[in-house]
Design a protein that fits this description.
This protein has 467 residues and is α/β, with parallel strands linked by helices. It folds into three domains: 32 residues; 201 residues, P-loop containing nucleotide triphosphate hydrolases (Rossmann fold, 3-Layer(aba) Sandwich); 169 residues, Ribosomal Protein S5, domain 2, CATH 3.30.230.10. 25% of the residues lie in helices and 25% in strands. The strands form four sheets. A nine-stranded mixed beta sheet has the order 6-5-7-8-4-9-10-11-12. An eight-stranded mixed beta sheet has the order 15-16-14-13-17-20-22-21. It has a three-stranded antiparallel beta sheet with strand order 2-1-3, with no helix packed on it. Strand 7, helix 5 and strand 8 form a beta-alpha-beta unit. The longest helix is centred in the middle third of the chain and has 18 residues. It is globular, with a radius of gyration of 27 Å.
């Protein structure tokens, strides 16, 4: 029998129910309803009858003093994703898979910021202080003036942060905290929501930047209630593929900067090393390009990144051809295959198709359509693309190659890495001539690109394809 005032909360989505059920009615997850005693959040108690309240106080948009400057941590890749530095009074949530290096990254951020004169604190609920010191010594940060603490009680953490003035505080992690205002266990939806809300209020009132570390579920989503992502000012995802040394810090939400920015790091024995030129990392070693490979000139946030699309088209051994894709959207691949077959006459109905983005990078930009199509056609026709050529462009269902944004920035990055030709849409940039030393080969339709790859001279203009 349920206790008085008890409710059942889904540990997957945070939905509340008055009675227990085997399946959550909100997210359809099984065996996630856990009994919790409902209580008001701190500060939410109604005032006594007859008590006077201050009421709501309004202020104008203009500020009397100068806005606070951003806290530059010293890690350029981290500062880039945050929008140029950490904003005082902001709350940031960083999530990632276990072992990807979240604690290493944030200890490095604290250490570098402390060396630049910032008052930094690192509070861990998962590790002992000696473990943190050992990692700092291995990373060469033993001399950094970072204040350490190992605590999980929210009341003790808040009291400690109120006694001293800090510029940057790291909480590792929010799932280990517990508040004595609630009877639920640490990591539950109620505890995570209450602890995150209290820390966000503390950051706003005292002007200290707080970074919360969050766990993720097996699906890669941030564990706990979704409301936590709404409360914080920025949500950053720290990603990494097993077998690859690089890590990517990606911004999913940022009230003070771009949301599509990325920072690239490489994991080493001495911690994370910033990658100044990600294109060279994802392209790998040079050499003769095989059939089925195309270099895509993409944009990640505000920086251009070159990466290689690899395709393999092989005869199918079974009745149903297989479609496998890594690093790209499978639905987008199905669309490109349909356009190639319907508009260009390149059939894939009896062949297996495998597509991979080299290096483990995940691409979501529509401008990668033409690079994927070029790799598929190159493999199907056994015709390699020129070694000095990059490809970019969006493909419509009619077979047209549509213009993409920031073409000039893509061409400059290609020229920096030694590429001299670019296959892309005929917009203002790829209208002919050269940009940054890269000769532009424009194609208005996908059939024109197929003709180029199939053996037509790259130095001659293609004949306009009929519709």
């Amino acid at each position: 029998m349920a206790k008085d005032g008890a409710v059942y909360v889904c540990q997957s989505c945070g939905a509340v129910s008055a009675k227990w059920a085997g399946q959550c009615m909100a997210c359809s997850a099984w065996n996630t309803m856990v009994e919790e005693v409902s209580s008001r959040p701190p500060g939410a108690l109604a005032p006594a009858r007859g008590a006077k309240t201050r009421g709501l106080v309004f202020e104008g948009l203009q500020s009397e003093g100068a806005p606070a400057r951003r806290l530059v941590t010293g890690l350029e890749e981290f500062d880039r994703v945050c929008g140029g530095g950490v904003v005082p009074g902001s709350a940031i949530l960083i999530a990632g898979d276990p072992g990807v290096g979240k604690s290493t990254l944030l200890l490095q951020v604290c250490g570098e910021a402390a060396k630049r004169g910032a008052a930094c604190a690192y509070i861990s609920g998962e590790e002992a202080i000696e473990q943190i010191r050992s990692r700092a010594h291995r990373m060469g940060l033993a001399a950094a003036p970072v204040r350490l603490a190992a605590e999980t009680a929210l009341r003790d953490i808040v009291d400690g942060l109120k006694r001293e003035a800090f510029d940057l505080v790291v909480i590792d992690s929010v799932q280990t905290l517990w508040s004595d205002m609630h009877e639920a266990g640490p990591g539950s939806v109620t505890q995570v929501r209450a602890c995150a809300a209290e820390l966000v209020r503390l950051a706003k009132r005292r002007g200290v930047a707080i970074i919360l570390v969050g766990h993720v579920t097996k699906d890669g989503q941030v564990a706990g209630p979704r409301v936590v992502e709404h409360m914080v000012d920025a949500v950053l995802s720290f990603e990494g593929e097993r077998g690859y040394p690089f890590r990517i810090l990606r911004g999913a939400k940022n009230r003070f900067g771009a949301t599509d920015e990325i920072g690239v790091f490489e994991m080493s024995d001495a911690g994370l090393v910033e990658v100044k030129n990600p294109s060279a990392l994802f392209l790998g070693e040079g050499g003769e390009r095989a059939a089925g490979a195309a270099v895509f000139a993409g944009i990640e946030g505000s920086r251009p990144v070159l990466m290689e699309f690899q395709a393999l088209v092989a005869p199918s051994a079974y009745g149903t051809p297989r479609r496998a894709v890594v690093g790209w959207d499978s639905g987008r691949l199905a669309m490109i295959l349909a356009v190639l077959e319907a508009r260009c006459g390149v059939g894939f109905g009896d062949r297996d198709v495998y597509l991979n983005v080299a290096g483990g990078l995940k691409v979501t930009e529509p401008a990668a359509d033409l690079a994927a199509a070029a790799a598929l056609v190159s493999s199907a026709l056994e015709a390699a693309l020129p070694q000095d050529c990059v490809v970019f462009g969006e493909i419509s269902l009619s077979g047209d190659v549509r213009p993409v944004a920031r073409s000039e920035m893509r061409l400059k990055e290609a020229a920096k890495l030694g590429f001299s030709r670019a296959l892309g849409p005929p917009n203002g940039t790829l209208g002919g001539g050269e940009t940054a030393g890269v000769r532009q080969v424009s194609v208005a339709r996908l059939a024109d690109a197929v003709a180029r790859i199939g053996g037509e001279a790259w130095d001659e203009p293609t004949q306009a394809s009929g519709r």
